[in-house]
Amino acid sequence: MAEQQLGVLKALDVAKTQLYRFTAIVIAGMGFFTDAYDLFCVSLVTKLLGRLYYFNPLSEKLGSLPPHVAAAVNGVALCGTLAAQGVMTTLCFFRFWLGFGIGGDYPLSATIMSEYANKKTRGAFKAAVFAMQGIGILAGGFVALAVSSIFDKKFPAPTYAVNRALSTPP
């Protein structure tokens, strides 16, 4: 039995790199991409939510989430905290469950790549999977910029310095 298993591993190590291995990189990498996208774009989303939901026309500063709400929204995917209201509660609820998925995805993606790669390409394939985290972070920033730009074009408003009350949608 052990001889057969070693034979399979040896065959995998001497096999040429084929399309199915790159498919495995993409599949495992997309998990890392979406994990990083969500974990790192939420800080940009909280800035936008604070501007919309916690606006104070008497303040010289732009609206921002209260510290306890910001901590719940940012940390709920990692520690399961849930303490907010309305939109924030919904966001926290789904980020909490996302945290369970991320917890399962990280070790499995690395394991999948280790099993599908031969000795020669294993390091490069695992690096390609983990590099998807950086691409996910960049995509989160681009999406936040695009949404902000579309919102600005659809709902033109003066800057906060010019008119505090009209700078934030009702």
Automatic annotation (TrEMBL):
It comes from the Eukaryota. One of its GO terms (cellular component) is membrane. Keywords: Membrane, Transmembrane, Transmembrane helix, Transport. InterPro entries: MFS_sugar_transport-like, MFS_trans_sf. GO terms for molecular function: transmembrane transporter activity. Pfam families: Sugar_tr (PF00083). It is found in: Membrane. It is a multi-pass membrane protein. Signal peptide: none annotated. The chain crosses the membrane at residues 20-45, 127-151. This is Major facilitator superfamily (MFS) profile domain-containing protein. It comes from Brassica cretica (Mustard).
